[in-house]
Amino acid sequence: MAIEAVIFDFGGVLTSSPFEAFTRFETERGLPPDIIRRTNAANHLENAWARFERAEVDIDTFDHLFAAESLALGAEVRGRDVLPLLQGDLRPEMVEALKRIKAKFKTGCITNNLPANAIGSLTGRTLYVAEVMALFDHVIESARIGLRKPDPRIYQMMVETLKVDPKDCVYLDDLGVNLKPAREMGMTTIKVGSGAQAIAELEAATGLSLR
């Protein structure tokens, strides 16, 4: 297999995961463990989170829908309160790896993100450091196109734009549900748990030294 392109998720891959912030928030407020993640996972294709990432609802509607969905699972959490928890810190080691990959292969980014005007959130375009985003040959943002992972069409759009065969691509994401469609298309997939682990697997897949 000759790799031609490496495609990245953004949050939780090039930045640290928001899950730690979710846990701190729940602990501080005495909420049931994992209530935020369970709310996100329930009916994950059509819930409040999915609709907001596709820019189908505004922030007020998202706030109310998320509150109702979380309450149904045991405790009310306002959607507005979750948004500030999403800001992750850039992982310098992953940015360095991306730079080295960029020198050899085509690069893409597929990100489920929120509308840029999401109040209290840095997950719109302001989060994306310009220097990092410039390293991608193509970026697909869910809130801009009205599709989100794991919809297979979003991966197809990327390979068509990059003009590559899925079998010649590596795809990195921190969520297994988002890796499945890429794997089914023939991509080599890497589930990101940490920067060091992801880089080791990327080195094995690409044959490059990334540190």
UniProtKB/TrEMBL annotation:
InterPro entries: ACAD10-like, HAD-like_sf, HAD-SF_hydro_IA, HAD-SF_ppase_IA/epoxid_hydro_N, HAD_sf, PGP-like_dom2. It comes from the Bacteria. Gene3D superfamilies: HAD superfamily/HAD-like, Putative phosphatase, domain 2. The keyword Hydrolase applies. GO terms for molecular function: hydrolase activity. It holds the Pfam family Hydrolase. Keywords: Acetylation, Hydrolase. Transmembrane segments: none annotated. NCBIfam families: HAD-1A3-hyp, HAD-SF-IA-v3. This is HAD family hydrolase. It comes from Bradyrhizobium centrolobii.
